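Sanity check record (used in CI):
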Amino acid sequence: MNLRLLQQSHRPRCSRLNLIPKIVPQAFKCVEYIEGNGEPGSIKKVTFGEESQFNYMKQKVEALDKENFVYIYSVIEGDALMNKLEKITYETKLEDYPDGGDPYARLLVSITP
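Expected output for Bet v I/Major latex protein domain-containing protein:
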């Protein structure tokens, strides 16, 4: 059992989150957690593909509320901040339409100069 866990830990860290790079490899080269595994406080590094104007960005998971379908993360480092912003925070919440229609995602963005 320990050997199996050791073997898994030697896989490239990019392999965990490589669905998006497989779908759009020209836009994303690699997505990997460099700290944590997705819980609040985790840091994810996104390395962009050759067709992107950016090289990379780091995202920090600020909050994850599974019961209320809320996910908050901040872009804390990288080209996407253009050396002008401290961070960009995204809050995504899945909600039902008031009349009982299909669920939709609400996105709030706040920028810290």
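Residues 1-12 have pLDDT under 50 and may be disordered. If this sentence no longer matches the regenerated tokens, the check is flagged for review.
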